[in-house]
């Protein structure tokens, strides 16, 4: 391969790190869509890659993992690959022709194995991380965008190289059933309403925050679910690939659950507004002249009461995105009336840039208004005697013995039921409250959950197939 592939995690040339030296991407135009898997080659030289066409009308899901499985080397209409694509796998003993059809993910995907003398549970924990870090999102994407097909899949299967009867790389969806708005909402998802819902349970706190930002103490064993929308996302986007220079990228800064997707035309004659390009601020330096900070500020503030504030934010997002949808139609119609491609590109640039500048300014205004509305742990709408009401803890949370509110006594404890000292506290409670003691015996147990994440961004693309069958979709 002429240019090769070398990632930030590829290790040294003399000691390639094949466990994390790869990418799973999509490549598309208005006519076709391909899943593209690539990793570094032997000795970190060249590259090994495979590509599989996504059938028209299908939804594809790629979640930080290879998804190309059995390849038909004779079917060049649906499979492409690098020269000698199987050679490294054969040399390393990862695959043999005796196994039959070449399974790209099974051959080149990573499965953790406990080294001699190490704790086997560590390898098992990492295996669960890898299996469900990608697999759960694949299942969720299919379930949301193609419910009938998603219902056929086991959400607890995971996605590892050796998974038996693995998830398909794509599934069919009814023609015209997937909209840009649906894909935006997929990007905002935390498995709401499922057993894996990150907005539910004690870890989400009283106000349903899906964010699990801090890391666990070193050596802790456990796992958080990996949602589609993540607190550490810097940006996400949805791309509508259209012919005649009318492709549109909907860009959302910071976490998808608290952003507004703004449209930018692919045929624009100039760059995005200055606030999207400015270096006056970055992640270690705040600047009101950098658009990203407006979205990050609101997402950070929303964690004070995620359920309440994020709902408010999403209502504003919906309004802006609907305005953007109408704007795209109006701008395209105006550009179609121009006599040259150059003039049309200028119209598209000015149209989308003006809209983006206006909406970023509105997002800053929203941030300041949220500060006033939700400050002091109240909700304030006006200055009348009825213009403010207090935020309320949910009953399930306030009455939990882990919180401690319902177990208050003059001699404590004041901080709930510590899991590490159940016997001592049981004795203390028994001297003053038999009821409290019995509740403690039943409920003084806990679990430790840990977070293990990878620094990845989230992004999604929607493509439309023109001509023969004008639609297909991908979520990444």
Summarize this entry quickly.
Strands 8-6-15-14-9-10-11 form a seven-stranded mixed β-sheet. It contains eleven helices and 15 strands. It is an alpha+beta fold.
Q: Average pLDDT value? A: 86
Question: What fraction, in percent, of the residue positions are helical?
Answer: 25-40%
Q: How many helical stretches? A: 11
Q: List the quaternary state of the chains.
A: single chain
Which strand order does the major sheet show? 8-6-15-14-9-10-11
Global structural class: alpha+beta
How big a fraction of the residues is strand? 5-15%
User: Largest sheet at a glance?
Assistant: 7 strands, mixed
Rg from Cα: 26 Å
Contiguous uncertain segments of 5+ residues = 421-475
Global geometry: globular
Number of strands: 15
End-to-end Cα distance: 25 Å
Notes on the structure:
- This protein has helices at 87-92, 104-108, 120-145, 147-150, 180-187, 291-302, 306-336, 341-374, 395-398, 422-430, 434-443; strands spanning 11-12, 15-16, 22-28, 33-40, 47-53, 58-61, 79-81, 170-172, 235-241, 248-253, 262-265, 378-380, 388-390, 461-463, 472-475.
- It is an alpha+beta fold and 476 residues long.
- Strands 8-6-15-14-9-10-11 form a seven-stranded mixed sheet.
- Strand 14 (461-463) and strand 15 (472-475) form a beta hairpin.
List its salient traits:
about 30% helix; 4-stranded antiparallel β-sheet; 7-stranded mixed β-sheet; alpha+beta; 15 strands; 11 helices; about 475 residues
């Amino acid at each position: 391969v002429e240019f090769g592939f070398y990632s930030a995690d590829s290790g040294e040339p003399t000691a390639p790190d094949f466990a994390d030296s790869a990418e799973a991407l999509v490549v598309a135009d208005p006519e076709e869509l391909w899943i593209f898997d690539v990793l570094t080659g032997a000795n970190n030289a060249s590259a090994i890659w495979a590509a599989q066409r996504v059938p028209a009308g299908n939804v594809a899901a790629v979640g930080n993992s290879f998804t190309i499985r059995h390849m038909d080397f004779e079917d060049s209409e649906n499979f492409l690959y690098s020269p000698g694509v199987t050679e490294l796998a054969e040399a390393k003993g990862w695959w043999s022709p005796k196994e039959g059809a070449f399974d790209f993910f099974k051959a080149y995907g990573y499965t953790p194995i406990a080294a001699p003398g190490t704790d086997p549970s560590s390898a098992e924990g990492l295996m669960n991380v890898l299996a469900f870090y990608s697999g759960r999102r694949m299942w969720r994407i299919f379930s949301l965008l193609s419910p009938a097909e998603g219902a056929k899949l086991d959400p607890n299967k995971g996605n590892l190289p050796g998974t038996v009867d693995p998830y398909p790389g794509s599934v069919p969806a009814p023609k015209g059933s997937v909209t840009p708005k649906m894909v935006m909402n997929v990007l905002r998802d935390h498995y709401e309403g499922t057993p894996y819902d990150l907005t539910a349970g004690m870890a989400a706190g009283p106000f349903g925050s899906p964010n699990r930002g801090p890391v666990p103490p070193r050596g802790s064993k456990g796992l958080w679910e990996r949602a589609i929308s993540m607190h550490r996302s810097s940006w996400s986007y949805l791309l509508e690939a259209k012919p005649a220079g009318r492709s549109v990228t909907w860009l959302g800064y910071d976490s998808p659950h608290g952003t507004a997707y703004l449209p930018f035309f692919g045929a624009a004659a100039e760059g995005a507004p200055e606030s999207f390009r400015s270096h006056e601020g970055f992640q270690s330096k705040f600047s009101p002249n950098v658009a990203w900070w407006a979205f990050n500020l609101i997402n950070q503030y929303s964690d004070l009461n995620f359920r309440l504030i994020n709902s408010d934010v999403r209502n504003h997002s919906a309004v802006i995105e609907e305005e953007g949808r109408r704007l795209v139609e109006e701008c395209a119609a105006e550009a179609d009336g121009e006599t040259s491609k150059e003039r049309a590109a200028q119209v598209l640039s000015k149209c989308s840039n003006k809209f983006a500048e206006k909406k970023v300014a509105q997002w800053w205004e929203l941030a300041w208004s949220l500060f006033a509305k939700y400050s002091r742990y109240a909700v304030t709408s006006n200055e009348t005697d009825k213009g403010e009401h207090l935020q309320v803890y949910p009953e399930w949370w306030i009455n939990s013995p882990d919180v401690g509110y319902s177990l208050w006594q003059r001699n404590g404890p004041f901080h709930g039921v510590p899991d590490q000292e159940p016997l001592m506290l049981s004795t203390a409670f028994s001297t003053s409250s038999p009821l409290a003691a019995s509740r403690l015996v039943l409920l003084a147990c806990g679990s430790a959950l840990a977070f293990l994440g990878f620094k990845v961004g989230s992004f999604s693309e929607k493509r439309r197939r023109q001509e023969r069958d004008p639609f297909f979709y991908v979520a990444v």
